[in-house]
Amino acid sequence: MSLPVVDYLKLPEGEDPYLEGHKCKECGSIFLGERNVCSNCFARDSIEPIKLNNTGKLYSYSIVFRSFPGIEVPYISAIVDLDGGGTVKGNLIDCEPDPEKINFDMPVEVVFDDALGRKDKDGNSYISYFFKPIS
Amino acid sequence: MSDVYVLGVDMIKFGRFPERTVPDLGAEAALLALDDAGLNIGNMEAFYCGNLGQANAMVGQRILQEIGQTGIPVVNCSNACATGATAFREAWTSIKAGLYDVVLAVGVEQMGTGLLGGAGGGTGIPKEGLLGSGTMPAVFAEAGMEHARQYGTTFEQFAKISVKNHHHSTMNPKARYQIETPLDEVMNAEMISYPNTKLMCSVNVDGAAAAVLVSEKKAKELGMQRAVRIKASVMTSDPYQERDLVMPDVNSCTRKAAAEAYEMAGLDSNDIDLVELHDCFATAEMLHYENLGLCNEGEAGRLIDEGEVELGGRIPVNVSGGLLSKGHPLGATGIANIYEVCTHLRGEAGERQVDNARIGMTHVIGLGSACGIHILEKV
Question: How many structural domains comprise chain B?
């Protein structure tokens, strides 16, 4: 069985994977990962988990041509504002790594797939998330 | 409260010194700054030392072992790329508080080669190239592309910043490189993370810089001829922004620090004659023109297009060559840029001298984030 690549990726049994946010009930700020105190409004015990949407818009990006040794390039490092709130970062796939082909605010969907074949030292495989243009 | 002055300040020529040690480089800069002030280590009442790579290894004390162990308090600090400015500001704070009259600050770093950045952290598998990129060229490219998104800033405009800073460095013998890089060379250099090519990334170098800070009383006693007044010393961390978790924010902490610095100095951006700002990448410099109030919102591209930020322009930026060509030894950068501004205020910058420089600003960003800004004034 595959493991989630980050703790805010949820793999509920028998249901579709989703990204989880943590939202402050007081001010509405959305975080990735659990926390006790809101870093925007300082409210305590106000954070509740929410299901983030699987669609969003490209906010910013870079096309990476040189990375750490062993990492396959090029790839598009993308920052996506999800519809309904929350911002996540990941690889934009199925899109040419060419600035002419990448438009700010282009609609994308969040898709879930194997983590490029990467395994941990115990041989476990992982499920990751990716962004894919919606045509 | 006493004004605080820089009485002595210097840096070593930045370069690659794999055969030397961090304390050795720091000691050299400390002695240069002490000589510049006409003092020796026996006159220092406290020592603030900035270094990142050996933050747990008592670098300040090891420097004293090389230049004189007098028993003074030593504070070792690390604050990412704002480390040097943090050490300098701690020194300033101690004099402001009335604890000391003469204090030493040193920033020093020995760098490796290759890309800096995080691999995403956590357990399991590497996240680099899977959940985007945590390399610094990519992170700052994304910050620059936010500006492109808002104002249509172009690859060519970002590249022009690198052309300018490399040109400036040809006049700075202490810079790592003294090489002109024409626009086509910058744009055709190896693309690291679009829109940052290799020539639009700061240079990993070894380096050290140091300053002797004194109270007004001490400055008057020792002679004010070459003293530089610290008009403002400000540090901020990054206030909450909605994209913080995936997009380290270098803008809001700079804006907050700039506003506080101008207020502390009783000045505005029109009073500034030169700026040394944190051009860790060409994309970063573009953002800080607006963040520091050097132009109106959305005008940064015009500023570089029209040459306003070149030596001889309205507000010269990074006449030292900046991190892009002078080099970026992380812990030393925040004092090296204070050396640069002081050198202009003293009228000792030679070929790259900014005419009639009276007031200058230094700015650094440590990602994570810390911002340090100093405003310095000719006495």
Answer: 1
